[in-house]
Structures are given as structure tokens and as C-alpha cells.
Specification:
This protein has about 270 residues and is of the alpha+beta class. Helix content is about 15%, strand content about 30%. The longest helix has 18 residues. It starts with a helix and ends in a 14-residue tail after the last strand.
Amino acid sequence: MKTSGIILILIALARGMFAQAPAQTAKRQAPEDLTGYWVSVVTEGWRYRMITPPKGDYGTGTWPVPLNAEGIRVTNAWDPAKDEAAGEACRAYGGGGIMRIPGRVHITWQDDNTLKVEFDAGTQTRLFHFGGTLRADIASSLEGYSVATWEAPPPGRGAPAGGGGGGTGFEVSGMPPPVNESQNQRAGTLKVVTTHLKPGYLRKNGVPYSANATVTEYLNRTNEPNGDSWLFDTTIVEDPTYLQGPFITSENFKHQADNTGWNPSACDAR
């Protein structure tokens, strides 16, 4: 057989192999499995998450929100009755604050490139779009438009702090103990950037974020030696309208074996 014939055969075989290779979707590339049911475990900011803080309390001295003068003015003008009358009882349940509302989260793949995140608190849904782009023609919404990417951990770095107790309700404790990184290496990070948000609240007492806000999140799953699994969400809110610097928080969720306790509920403006 001539050399040219052999080359053509090899090319044909290579094309066949690539044609049969599965598409490298976000679901196939996932370094860790974030799907399933998760329950909030409140390890910090109890007074701002488990109850609605008093009007005008934006945390000066304790878990402060870095509001500018306009942000303080809007916070002090909060009126939940007006929100209810205007059909805006869900302003604290938008993409800038929903992760801090105590409740349960259900994560599934809507398709091979879209993670679906459902919340029983407020009966809200967020979609994380892999390969998505931010376009000017995307309409603003309560949960905004979220672009997701997988990121590998830095070499030699393990998981963030984890721990906490068991149970089926919202759990309150001190800060969890450090993780033994040699036993609990994180496989990768899900980065989510959300824009195109309608104005909402960072806290239920009217601490605002505007339509100009950008929310950046980093989510990691850890698997503990005792069999527990945890989901950690670090959230960074930047808003030139109401904030004079980034507002950074961290939310912890414990994995559940099933949907025990799942209880979709309406938004509560108070």
C-alpha cells in the first residue's frame, strides 16, 4: 500500500474517534458534584439572618455593610408595608441576598450546561449558565443572569473551614473548626458572576443593592471523614450605587440524603 493511502486511512480513523468522543459539557467537566439537597447552617450573622433586624440596623461595628451615604438613606427609609403594597415582598430573596436566607437548596442539572438552584425560601430559582455571555439585551430580573465557570484549586491548597452539627432544622453554632486538609482536598471551585439584577435587599430590613450590582460567588464542596458533605459559598457584592466597598459574606450548607424538611414558602417582606 502506498504511503499516501496509509495516511488517508489514519486520518479517517482519527476523524471517527473524535466524532465518537462525548462533548465536553460543563456537566462532564464538573470537578465535584454539587447536586442534591442542602440545608443552611448558620454559623455567623445570626441576628441578621435568623430574624429581621430593626429598621436602620446595617451592622455598624458588627458584620457591617459598607454603605455609602445614599445606601444609608435608603436603608433608613425601609417600609415593608410599601413593599407588600407594590408587590415587591421578594426584594430580600433576589440574587444578591437569597443565599443568606435560611432554608433549603436543591441543586440539579437543568441541562448539560446549566445548573438549576431552587430555594424553598421564597420559592425562588437561579440558573447558572456555563459558556454564557453577558449581553446588553438580557432583561433584568429578581435573580439576575448568572455566568458560571469551573476553576481548579491552586496547587497545594485544600478546602475551606468546615464542620457543624447534625439535625434537620437550621443549625446555629460557633464558627466550625478547621478542616484537616490532608483528608479533605477540594476538587475545584464553581465561580458564578451575576448581573442584570433588579434592585433588592442584602438584608431583610431594607439594606439595599441596586440594578448596578455585581455578585461574584465561589462555591466549594467538601467531604468530611465522618461522611458529612458541606457546601461553602463565598459571596462578594459590589454596587457603586449604594456601597463604598465590596460586601463579603460566607454561607454554609450541609448535604441532606433526601428532601426531608423541604417546604416551599412565599416571600416575607417582614
